[in-house]
Amino acid sequence: MRTQDVDVFSVLAGVLFTGLGLWFIVEALGIGRLDLGVVWPVLLVAAGVAVLLAARSRLRFARPES
Amino acid sequence: MHTQKPTRQRPSSPPRQRRSLRRTTDDRVWVGVAGGVAEQISVDAVLLRVAFILGAAFWGVGLVLYLALWFIIPEVDSPTTNVVRPGQRPGRFRGAALAVAIFGLTWLLRSWGWLPADRYLLPWAFIAVGVAVAWGRHPVRPLPRPALPAGPANTLLTDIDFEEAADDAADGDDVADPPLAEPNTDQPIDDSPNDTRRSRGASGPAMVPIGTLTAGALLVACGLLYLADDTGMFDVSWRLTGGVSLTFVGMALVAGGWWGRPRGLIVLGSALTVILLLATVLQVPLRGGVGRRDLRPITAADVADEYRLAAGVFVLDLRDVDLAERRDVSVTVAAGEMRVMLPIGVEVAIDGRTGFGEVVVFDRSGSGVGVRRSFSSDGSAEGLWVLDLDVGVGKILVEQVP
Fold this sequence. Notes:
Chain A is an all-alpha fold. Chain A is built from two helices and no strands. Classes of the chains: A mainly alpha, B alpha/beta.
């Protein structure tokens, strides 16, 4: 079965925004508390993963031909 | 047995032509700021406009930024950039015209007293702009495909099934590449439909304008929630609205990863995240003026229940006040420094918070994001000061001074 090519960046960013959005909802409803000290590292990790993915895709195209 | 796969030279991407940032003349709703910036960073201009509108709802940041960019960015020299194909945009402009009409009508009804308050203007504006964005006609663009090198090698490439190749690449398989000759750059690609090199690369599965549709739906939903809150139907906090919006954008991005590649939504999601985080950090009212304020009350009657400063330095010296009964005082500084001086040995209960900065309450200190330090004297005695101290960004210093 033929599948559509997946845009990894969009999916990754989507998962990150969904998580953060749910976090804000949880805090707004008073169920939990948004600890800002955790948000920044999560954003940093996400940015790092995005950079690694970008580097990986670049490496695939820059691979030396045999 | 290992067989060597035939190899081909991967086409090198053409050098990217970087144009200087200009306000556009042909993709504009107002002065072409969003269109120009969108062209420069290759995102949908509609999403940038939505981000500016959302930003404007938060202390007018979006509006100020837009005006600053209007002042900074020069207009494009000629209308040759941003070429708009005939019939591509009028639906969007028609939608914008509708938005302006609704906005004006709302204003008019308010001035006649038929709408009770200013607050109804903003939700209607959200709804109107959202309808305009979603209602505008969106060209269905093809998904991007690999650029093809010019030359006779393309007669071989035209036989490759790109979707099959994409499947293989997604599965982690190497594509069985046919042998290719050196790219022949002598033969230019023409625009004729018979030129398979261009037509092959330009065609492909349709890209759903999921980003624009999401932005429009989001604005309409925000406007309706805003309206429901204002009319008292239910209590909707801005944090809940922002959280729901961010979740909505995130889910649209995940879905769009398969169907539309809506990377412009990343801009919108990032803007929402920054706004929500800033608003979470800066939960201090932006009131009370700007500058330095030194207060040294002599009696308890001179002490107010609350003090507000928008930005600057606030010094509250309570050393001369001899309290006979408990007194609650609230002090907020949105951005800057707050210093509270107390006499030695006085009974106090202090709660100091800052969104970003440093809090020092006697010997207890902390710095960073979302810092809170509290102190309470043992037991209670007459003359207990209860101090509620908030600084959005900056420093809180509470000390005992003889």
